[in-house]
Amino acid sequence: MLRPTSDALLLAVDFLGTLVFAIEGGVAAARGNLDLLGALVLAFVTALGGGIIRDVLIGAIPPNSIRDWRYGAIAFFGAIVAFFMHSLVLEIPASFLTMLDAAGLALFAVAGAEKALNYKIHPFLAILMGGITGVGGGTVRDVLLAQVPTVLRADVYATAALAGAAVVVIGLRLKLPRTPVAICGISVCFLLRMVSLWRHWNLPRLAGH
């Protein structure tokens, strides 16, 4: 089994994305009036669900978020902050939550694509793994809250994750410096998501819908 090389940048992006999505999961738990256990579970699956799905698909077993205690600690920290500050959390503007979600989406899409490439996954599939990393946790969260997953109804959501992952894969295949490539991938995903909301961009829908 090929082990991925140690990469401080990838780890930092992964940790930051975990914290961002954990806080978002905690916010969703507060808005859903869940108890502390519910908040912990929701933050965990939101922050780490996409990465676990990716790791299983690329053969990184057991998933890194299970082997490395820091991932779970970061996820639970985000849940606890949101839970014990719920009065402030419920007053967070929807626009800020949207930016938080877009930031988490971008960070995870880039980290997911890079890790897939480290495991010698085909570039096309590495882009898909980036997209799955970005949207997987949020999809599980929405299912647990009995909601239609954001990825199925939001304006250019998964598409933004795939675009950011594609920038990373193409840049690394061209042997460009990793840090600028990662920053570009994160920026493309984040900006595409935010602009799509601002301009109300949508993918084509079935006729009559």
Range of strand content: under 5%
Alpha-carbon Rg, integer? 16 Å
Helix fraction bin: over 70%
Largest sheet: none
Low-confidence stretches: 1-6
Mean pLDDT: 87
Structural write-up:
The protein has 209 residues and is an all-alpha fold. It has helices spanning 8-31, 36-58, 64-67, 69-84, 86-89, 94-118, 123-144, 150-153, 158-173, 178-199. α6 (94-118) runs antiparallel to α10 (178-199). It is globular, with a radius of gyration of 16 Å.
Could you give the topology of this structure?
Elements: H1 8-31, H2 36-58, H3 64-67, H4 69-84, H5 86-89, H6 94-118, H7 123-144, H8 150-153, H9 158-173, H10 178-199
Helix pairs in contact: 1-2, 1-4, 1-6, 2-4, 2-7, 6-7, 6-9, 6-10, 7-9, 9-10
Features:
10 helices; globular; disordered N terminus; mainly alpha; 209 residues
Structure at a glance:
This protein has 209 residues and is mainly α. It has helices spanning 8-31, 36-58, 64-67, 69-84, 86-89, 94-118, 123-144, 150-153, 158-173, 178-199. It is globular and about 50 Å long.
